[in-house]
Design goal:
CATH class of the largest domain: Alpha Beta
Shape: globular
Radius of gyration: 21 Å
Number of helices: 12
Strand content: 15-25%
Structural class: alpha/beta
Order of helices and strands: HHEHEHEHEEEEHHEHEHEEHHH
Number of strands: 11
CATH superfamily of the largest domain: Periplasmic binding protein-like II
Length: 352
């Protein structure tokens, strides 16, 4: 913890000088922040150049992300083209694996992750309130195209979103599906793919299913002995391989279709989507490069690298976006007790 605190204070001291200069020049510090910098700080010109120069000296930045691997690799290529002196290291995994790693790094003071991107709303809210997420700065956060409402607690920010629907293997289901409720079919027993509600965002997905199709839909689904997967990536692979025939939790799959995989999917009329949030961990070993990466993620080149396969951009007029960010469901605020209670209920249904 000593190392983590020292790195955080070193960064804040540098930002203090940058932010103070910006304010003196007529810039601003975002509401709710102090002169140590934060969302909305005007870091343009020489001020931002100083942060970039420090980031170049650090020479690398590590992103932990629950987004798709193709998205992460596209982001890496675009970022390193823009900042050739900074190497972007990608660690891609599901959030239930990444969060314990981040917590262990913080507790030991041996930080590896600089920036984290995930859909874990409660985790972000809790850590921002605890002061373990570093305030963000950067010119892209001041871009009029980036809605300031997408910045939360002056620390974590919305990076992109994805819309989910139902999918099927076209070899197994040549006539396709017309609605989510079509998966409730005895012919698919043991061949339905579902996602485990291991995190708050996925609890909300199951709540969405209950709201749209009734609680009986979930219990009927459990009666068909579906296969349980930890996230969308493994589920997509299972659908493409024929391990499962249908799925209730599918992100867009034009990439797999282009490779000749026998898959198809549809977005329901009232679809569920997940918003991805990004932020800088207070144990980040490269805090300046973390600021540069965060800024790049919400810039137009960053969004163009992240958004494809009908995922959702946080800027307008990005080619390939599947919806407007304002149309993506914002999950209700669940208490920790509500999340745990639903997870226990779900496990009794699906895994007992």
């Amino acid at each position: 913890m000593v190392r983590s605190a020292r790195m955080k204070m070193s960064f804040i001291a540098g930002v203090l000088m940058v932010a103070s200069t910006a304010v003196a020049a007529g810039g601003h510090v975002g509401a709710g922040t102090d002169a140590s910098g934060g969302a909305g700080t005007d870091t343009t010109g020489a001020d931002w150049d100083a942060v970039v120069a420090a980031a170049n000296e650090e020479g690398s930045v590590t992103l932990y992300t629950a987004q798709g691997l193709d998205q992460a690799n596209n982001l890496k290529e675009a970022f390193e083209a823009e900042y050739p002196d900074i190497t972007l290291e990608i660690v891609r995994d599901i959030s239930s694996n990444l969060i314990p790693k981040i917590e262990a790094e913080r507790q030991t003071g041996r930080g590896i992750a600089d920036v984290y991107v995930s859909a874990d709303t409660v985790w972000w809210e809790t850590n921002a309130a605890d002061g373990t997420i570093i305030p963000i700065i950067g010119p892209s956060f001041d871009d009029p195209d980036y809605d300031p409402a997408l910045i939360h607690a002056d620390t974590y920010f919305e990076a992109s979103a994805v819309v989910f629907g139902f999918g099927w293997n076209t070899d197994d289901v040549p006539d396709g599906l017309t609605s989510m409720t079509d998966v409730i079919n005895p012919e698919f027993e043991g061949k339905i793919g579902v996602v485990e509600p291991s995190l708050e965002a996925l609890v909300d997905f199951w709540k969405y299913l209950e709201e749209q199709y009734g609680e009986d839909f979930v219990t009927d689904l459990a009666d068909l002995n579906p296969r349980v997967y930890p996230g969308a990536g493994p589920l997509r692979e299972a659908l493409a391989s024929g391990e499962i025939s249908v799925s209730t939790y599918n992100s867009p799959m034009p990439d797999l279709e282009a490779q000749g995989a026998p898959v198809a999917w549809e977005i329901p009329e009232t679809a569920w989507g997940a918003r991805f949030y990004g932020g800088i961990i207070d144990s980040a070993p490269h805090p300046n490069a973390a600021q540069v990466l965060s800024d790049f993620i919400v810039s137009r080149p960053g969004q163009e690298s992240l958004v494809f396969n009908e995922s959702v951009a946080v800027l307008p007029d990005v080619a390939g976006t599947g919806a407007e960010i304002a149309d993506i469901r914002i999950a209700p605020e669940y208490t920790a007790e509500e999340i745990t209670e639903y997870q226990e209920y779900w496990r009794d249904l699906f895994q007992s």
